[in-house]
Specification:
With 241 residues, the protein is α/β, with parallel strands linked by helices. It is built from 8 helices and 6 strands. Strands 3-2-1-4-5-6 form a 6-stranded parallel beta sheet.
Length: 241
Amino acid sequence: MTEILDRGAFVQALRAQLSVDPRRTAILAVDVHRGHLDPEIGTMPVAPEDASRVRAACARLLAGGRALRVPVVYVLLTYRRTTPPGLESMGNPFWRAVEAARESMTPGRRSTIVYHNQEGSPQTEVPPELAPQPGDYVVRSKKRLSAFYGTELDVLLRALGTETVVIAGINTNTCVLCTAFDAFNRDLRVIVASDAVASMYGEDLHVFGLETLRRCLGWVLPTDEILAVLGAAGVPTAAGR
């Protein structure tokens, strides 16, 4: 198996270049719903230990961001109830093939695409400790991997004057990575919270996602370091927003 290339010096050099204005930053909570983060009812669940880790780190990130008056934006996948169920997801040929093969996308755990996050289901709910607060923004029109594709996220970020996005959520190698690519292509500064992301596809693809992010697209930092970077820039006043 090919070993992961050591780009530690490269990553450290780029870390020294990171400067963030919290007034021009938004936190994106991507698919932090029970469909991924509740092992009891998840239709595409991450491993239980990953769910606990992500929920705890994401709660700290969101609370810390709000304290610094950084806008928090939830982007949550929801499929309309259709006949047959899951028609909005079943338009994708790869997803249709996975369902037809009766294979699970979550190694060692059951998953379903056709019934994943149907509108009105408990899977579309956000865990209590991650629930949106007054002043947060919630986008529920996500249907595919990118938080930008087919949603109002781009317009919202432009209206907020966003230059930097801090991304957390599920999955590291798909929705988080695809959202980071789309943010990068819009010339936004990309930061990913390393302890607030995970992959239902397995640890290997989680690592792949993080390596791609830190070596090609942006900065990958733990939550506490991200909050320190934002706080070091100064807490904006109400008049400054």
